[in-house]
Each structure stands twice: as C-alpha cells, then as structure tokens.
Amino acid sequence: MAVARIPPQLESPFDYFGDHTEFGPALFSKLVPFAVHMAISIYEERRDRLVNQNIIQELEVLTERLHEILSSLNLPGSLQALEKPLGLPGSLVQHADEIRQADAVGRLQRSFADIEKLRNSDRDVFEEGKALLAAEEEEDNRFRMAHGTQRWTRLDSRNDPQGSKLWNHAAEVEGYFASSTSSDGVVRDKFASVEDVLRLLAGSDRGIMDFVPSSRRTEIPEAVKPALGRLRSAYNDVLRIESRRRKRVEVLRDKARSDDIKSDILKEAARLERTYPNTAIATAHFEDFFEKRLDSVYESDLELIDKETAEQDKVLGDVNRANREFEAQKRSAGSGSREREAALQKLDNAYYKYKELVSNVEVGRKFYNDLSKIVGQFRDQCRNWVQERRKDARSLEE
Fold first, then answer.
1. What is the pTM of this model?
2. I need a surface site. Which of 5, 229, 333, 368 has the fewest CB within 10 A?
C-alpha cells in the first residue's frame, strides 16, 4: 500500500551542493572571517594613501613648480605677445572657454561652501565627544570631593589608561583642525588673488580683448625669429610633458579603482589557515601580503616620480637657455610690448591657479570626509568609555 521513499536531496546531499544546482551554493559557503573584511579595508586605505599622497600629490607638486618657473620667465606671455600681436592667442581663447563651461568661480565658491559644511559637521561631532569627556571629568571630581580621596580610590579621568588615550587623541584631532583651517585660509587667499581675473576670463571675448593691449609692432624682426622658434619648441616640450602627466594620473586612478584584492586575500587567508591551523586569523597576519602586493602593483608608478622629475628638470633647462637667448635678441631688436606680455601672462597665471584650486578643494573635501570617520569613532569611544566610568562610579558609591 505504501513505500517509504527518501528524497534524493537527503539521500545524496553532496550531489546537490554547488553554484550551478537548482538550490544554489551551500548556506554560508562564502562566509569569510571578519579579519579578512578588515584586511581588505586596511589594504584599500593604504592603497589610496599611496596613490593619492605618494604619487599623484607629488606629481601635482612637480606641475605647480613647473608653472611657477614658467611664470617667473614670463612664459607663455612673452611668446604670445610676439607671435600674436593683435587679438587673442588661440590657447587663451581655449582657456576662457573652459573657464566659462566649468563656471569656474561658481564651482570654487560652491566647493568652499561644501568644505565649510563638512568642517562644521566634523567639528560638531568632535565637540560632542569632548563634551562627554569634560562632563565625565567634572562628575569624577565632584564624587572625589564628596567622598574624599581616601575613599574615592579610582584613577581620575586623565590618568585612567583609556581616558588618557582619549584625551591625547582629542589633542591630536585639535591639531588636525588647526592645520586644516590654516590650509583652508591659504587656499581662499589664493582664490581671492585671482578671482577678478577669473571673472574676466569667464566674461566675453570683447572684455578680454579690452584688457589685453595690442602691440604697436605687428611684424617679428628677422633676427628674433630663430630664437623665437627655439623657445617655442622648448615650451611645447613642457606642454607635452604636462599633458602626458595628466593622462598618466588618470590611468593611475583607474588602476587603483580596479585594484580588487578580494580573491587574492581569500587565497592568502586560506594559506594562513593551513599554515597556522590553531591560530585565529588577525589583520596583522596580512602585513607581508600588503607590502608585497603594493610593491608589485605600484612600484613602477613610484619610480615614475623620479623619471618625471629628471625629465622636467631637463626640459626646464632647455627653456631657460632658449628664453635667455630670446630675451637678448628681443632687446637688441627693440621688439615686444611689455604691457601686452604682462596682461597675457596674468590671464595665463589665473587659469593655472584655477587648476591648482580645483585640486586643492578636492584634497580638502577628501580630508574632511576622512576626518568625519575619525571624529565619529572618537565620539563613540568617548560615549562607551563614559558609560563604563559612570557604571563604575555608581558601583563604587554604593
């Protein structure tokens, strides 16, 4: 009448495990130790710090130094004034179009406002943590005065090991705020120094033409042409270096974004479990893995800084020699318009200051976003420690 039948899934369960069965992968098959998740976060933080601070920031410093030297040589203003004695140089027109399309002044002002909000938010969270520490210290002092030091025997707030650590951390964060506020002031001063010229560039071409006087002499003297050609060639080499550097930075950012170590770190975790079967995995066990991985992936990019520095020094040396010859020939021929050179150089300087400012505000935004994690953890640690101290105080008082 009836036959006992065991479902095949129970009779041969291992035949039904796997990603490609109707039941999907086994439950918890992809669960990894918490230390592995922490290790991935630590690696990503170190990777971003290496890429952004040790490579990209160094390249940006090189570029800033490059433009400072060019500006001190009055380049490209002196070239443009002689090559284009009337109207506006093509590169200046392109820069003006970029400034207009980016809404440069508005973009920077919005960035400053965003950074201000981030800083105030970070400061509020930090002050909340400090207020908890101060309140606990005041309560502890009140108890000590009420019960006497002989009976109130526990360590005061600043001598308690965890309390001392928190107070020291608070002093460190205060230093972060002081340093960042000073840096923010420098960036705002830099913006104030070029705001009027940026507004001019963002205006009409007619307004820019009114700002740039025309040269009285429209023909380039024959004696100056060879020196002009050599200087233009050397200056173009500088522009090529800068353009190539920007592309390399973008490639490096893409490389960092696509650097996913999850599969490799899982293999490393499995190796560690086999090697040390009786030891729980901790993030410290991945230190050698981090160093080897960062070295193998980004060593060539770190070497790029030395190559870029050497190449930039060489090209700037060529520019310096060509510029000395050019200025000597120009003086002897009595050509050039100092007023036009100065106006063109002022506009060019403002454009590159704008590029620096964009980089500065992005660094500032990232700093305050990172700081928000630090102050958030600080506040939570203060809250937990204060709760423990209050519980301990109630016990001692009873």
1. 0.78
2. 5
